[in-house]
Amino acid sequence: MKNILEGIEKSARLFPKNIAVSDVSSKLSYEMLIKNSKKIAVSFKENAWRKKPIAILMDKSVKLATSMLAVLYSGNFYTVLDPEMPKDRMLKIFETLEPVAVLTNDKYKDLALELGNTDIFYYENAINEEIDEEYLYNIRRAMTDSETMYILYTSGSTGNPKGTVISHKAAISYTDWVLENFDINEKTIWGSQTPFYFSMSVTDLFGGLRSGGCLCIIPKKMFSFPLKLVEYMNENKINTIYWVPSALSLVAKWDTFSYDKPMYLKKILFAGEVMPNKQLNYWRRAYPDAYFANLFGPTETTDICTWYHVDKEFKDEETLPIGKPCNNCFVLILDEDLKEADKGELYVGGSFLADGYYNNPEKTKASFVQNPLNKAYPEILYKTGDLVSYNEYGQLIYLGRKDFQIKHMGYRIELGEIEANMSAMEKMNSCACIYNETEDKIVLIYEGRIKKDAVMEHAKKKLPPYMHPNVLVKVKAMPVNANGKIDRVYLKNNYNLMED
Amino acid sequence: MNIEKVIEVLNEVKPGVDFSKENDLVERHILSSMEIVMLVSELSEEFDVDIPLPEVVPENFYSAQTIAKLIERMEDED
Fold first, then answer.
1. Do A227 and B56 lie within an 8 Å CB cutoff?
2. Where do the AMP-dependent synthetase/ligase domain residues begin and end (chain A) (predicted)?
3. Is-above-0.90 flag for pTM?
């Protein structure tokens, strides 16, 4: 296989009538998904673009999934844009991406026009094209698996989005692992939570489409109304989920399972943030026989590089391991002298690796580096910036971001360790720890109906004195970024204005 | 009517929105799922009512008006 589409075409041959993707208002079989994508691809024929970026501006839907495949059929690569992202951020992405075209629908016509001088293609028109098999064959014949499949933008620490370049080869290798490791097959019905512009969606969207199973898109608003969410999951017989921990935690916070439960659920996978055991235990009590796995990795390794099958009990305040490398993935822990160590920065190698950052050679060079232990031939590793160590069972433990490691009162401290301990507190909905360098203070920002002295009391019980927060800020709602993760950059600059 | 107080609570959870005019909080994703959690907890505290999960449905959260109606109903049930 050299193109991810071949995996989807295989599903279409084996299970043509199976539903491939569904959303709240439509469903599409494999047969129709392939047909519709091919039709749309033909609308790009006249321009004869090859290996060019095409931006897609649409809500998460069956049509968006179809459009993504269409761009691949045309021999180009896509970037999915979130229509709800601020226009300024979109323009910043356009500055580095320089897309040759925007594929959108009538709903976002005005927005697409505001984005500048690119050709605009409308789904409503493109879907009326006639399939041209010869054109599609020639494109496929000429391509290789090292061609780019998509560019995924993540927020850079400087505030400028970085576009991670993922090849067909990386996405194929990664989804090979997903299919095999989690036994994903034509019976799998994914309940899709993560946006298609977020790396986690590669797992359920392409893992799903390669298996002959179904990707059932759960409308975002359902996560605000947990009983509706459960109802939707049951109507669609969702049996597998791969969500961010905050989505799982929401269900736990509402104590949803006292009222109703998704009854078909068998596999519960999560990634993207640290999963607090307190909330995970709520799920595990409700699903004692389900399969739970913690997945870990950056966008730069397509989605994931290590994983842990949750196979033993954990106390609420314990940290869940991130386990071991995925099959076909290789990890190294290096200390500051670039020597192998039991604790240090995580480096990843293997086929899941991205090719770098789009139009950004400096950032690429800084993060995609030669394996310092290999002097014999070129071998690129991704330097994750994540600090990890091994536990007594030889499993990897995530300690925190390298940039979150601080030195305070002479001690090296992981802010993540403080967070893990504090988030186990009763009634603690969410918390984040930042470090104010100028005042040398550890600041804990938290959300939950708990008095500050109770928070300090808990800190004293769980943490050594040098790790106690120096400042506590109680907020009404934790700020989150576009991916739904806690917005630490915002917190760092604004925490003193946020007191509830 | 509780409507002013409801708008006040809404603005505490999400400043910068004119909740007296918005009547499609759900479909327009004006409140995130986390903000709905906060809102329900703040409303329970402010009005001293219990809002059980079965009442946390889109119809009750379309606008400040529908939220005020929900509160009234919950107060009557107390």
1. yes
2. 9-358
3. no
